[in-house]
Design goal:
GO terms for molecular function: UDP-glucosyltransferase activity. This is Glycosyltransferase. With about 475 residues, this protein is of the alpha/beta class. It has 2 domains: about 270 residues, Rossmann fold (3-Layer(aba) Sandwich); about 190 residues, Glycogen Phosphorylase B (Rossmann fold, 3-Layer(aba) Sandwich), CATH 3.40.50. It is about 40% helix and about 15% strand. Strand 9, helix 12 and strand 10 form a beta-alpha-beta unit. Helix 7 runs parallel beside helix 10 and helix 17 packs across helix 18. The chain is globular, with a radius of gyration of 22 Å.
């Protein structure tokens, strides 16, 4: 295995997928004929790539339907490389179709919480309309029906679906129904239906997204009406009330099929990973996992405060310390964060600092993990809740403040690290210490953990045969194969 410049490890499943890749550079003549084919079109960011690859594997392995995963060479490689917890044999069944993307700049992350350094990548995605349309025209000529499952943020790029009579598009929602509900109602001037006390605590929309990204979303919304329905990667057990409210204002068909991530990790390919070996030596539910995803970079001062807070808490921890992804994760040198002098030596045996890509689902599923300090991105939210792990919520931008509110105020399976109205302020080491102690070493934390474990068990059952989410997925498959 070789290491990329981003610190990720090359995955051997890439080799196994070489026979299932097609490219715009070659001819379409060898594309097979299909009765029904599914084409996945993800948005060009890790959390979005990951969810549609999970759905691809789920549909391909359970229903034996042909699935094409469409993206640039680099992003398809990234999706395969970071396919945490997915069975390599399932990934090998997916047809990765490489389409061109214009050259774009890939600057290093800036010291702000929203990844505005990805704007050149968003702009480049708008120029993928023609190659996507070309692929769809060709594959639709060889199939009775083509189902395009695409990220909402790729609505502009798949708009030519409307000109192809046997092609149907479905939006895959990569964010929570609660966030979609709050955002759409507040933007349209309607009141959010929550109790009076909860409404007082609901995070405001201001400061969650920069104007540049709001403009990008507005462009995508112009092309959403061509879809025939929506898939939601969530569960009625988590946010059924808000899924019902969304359905009242949208006539499109809805399928609630989540969480789509693997819940039985019997095929872990990296059992010898250093953090899993370390976890094997710890007591049950004793370790706090800390990670803030792929779109946030902390300042040196924030890293120092977090390090001191963790050390002072005297609780076991695994800390994934990485900067935000570049637009192209395979170029550039990763920033080296400075920790307090002697920190790693002092916490030896108590804490583990990781600087490379970590097997997050496996960490959260491990019996030694008892808490997760998280930015509350939707992938991390679902992985933690599905595995029954409570969250110390520290939202940074976008949908994350609403996700943090959902987990702490509504589901009652987490604690807030910093209220959203103070998101511009530095979080002190003492604040971090207190939250960690409360979650990991108090009666209140134990009660939260018990609720999280009970909800996780119910969610996992819902994804199995006969469960509510599996029934919804069966319904979706029946719709597209009708």
């Amino acid at each position: 295995m070789t290491k990329t410049q981003s610190g990720d490890m090359e995955d051997p499943t890439e080799v196994g997928n070489s026979n299932h890749s097609t490219s715009m550079c070659g001819s379409y003549e060898n594309l097979p004929n299909h009765e029904v084919v599914i084409v996945m079109v993800p948005f060009l960011a890790q959390g979005h790539l990951n969810q549609l690859l999970q759905l691809s594997c789920l549909i391909s392995s359970l229903y034996h339907l042909p699935v094409y995963y469409v993206g640039s060479v680099t992003l398809n490689r990234q999706a395969r490389l970071r396919a945490n917890a997915l069975n390599p044999s399932d990934i090998a069944k997916i047809h990765f179709h490489d389409i061109p993307i214009p050259e774009f700049s890939s600057p290093p992350p800036v010291l702000r919480k929203f990844p505005l350094h990805h704007k050149p990548l968003w702009d480049a995605s708008l120029l993928q309309r023609d190659p996507i349309a070309s692929f769809l025209r060709d594959i639709s000529s060889k199939s009775r029906r083509v189902i395009v499952v695409h990220d909402l943020l790729m609505s502009y790029s798949v708009q030519d679906v409307s000109s192809l009579p046997n092609v149907e598009s479905i939006i895959f929602n990569c964010i929570s129904a609660f966030n979609s509900y709050c955002s759409s109602f507040l933007f349209s001037g309607m009141s959010v239906q929550l109790g009076e006390e909860l409404l007082k605590k609901l995070p405001p929309l201001e400061g969650t997204l920069p104007d540049e990204f709001n403009s990008f979303i507005a462009l995508q919304r112009l092309y959403m009406d061509i879809r025939s329905g929506d898939i939601h990667n969530t569960s009625n057990l988590i946010e059924g009330e808000f899924l019902d409210l969304l359905a009242q204002v949208d006539s499109k068909q809805q399928w609630v099929i989540g969480p789509i991530l693997p819940t039985k990790l019997n095929h872990i390919s990296n059992r010898n990973n250093i953090c899993l070996e370390w976890l094997n030596k710890q007591s049950p539910r004793s370790v706090l996992y800390i990670s803030f995803g792929t779109s946030t970079t902390f300042s040196d001062r924030e890293v120092m405060e977090l390090a001191m807070g963790l050390e002072q808490s005297k609780q076991k921890f695994i800390w994934m310390l990485r900067e935000a992804d570049r637009g192209d994760i395979f170029i550039g040198e990763a920033r080296k964060f400075e920790l307090p002098e002697g920190f790693e030596e002092r916490v030896k045996g108590v804490g583990l600092v990781l600087r490379e890509w970590a097997p997050q689902p496996e960490i959260l599923a491990h019996s030694s993990t008892g808490g997760f300090m998280s930015h509350c991105g939707w992938n991390s939210f679902l992985e933690s809740i599905t595995m029954g792990v409570p969250i110390a919520a520290w939202p940074m931008h976008g949908d994350q403040p609403n996700n943090g509110f959902l987990v702490t105020e509504m589901l009652k399976i987490g604690l807030i690290v910093r209220e959203w109205d103070k998101h511009e302020e530095l979080v002190s080491a003492s604040t971090i210490e207190n939250v960690v102690r409360k979650l990991m070493a108090s009666e209140e934390g134990d009660a939260i953990r018990k609720r999280a474990e009970e909800l996780g068990e119910a969610i996992r059952r819902s994804t199995e045969k006969g469960g509510s989410s599996r029934i919804e997925l069966d319904s979706f498959i029946a719709h597209i194969t009708r």
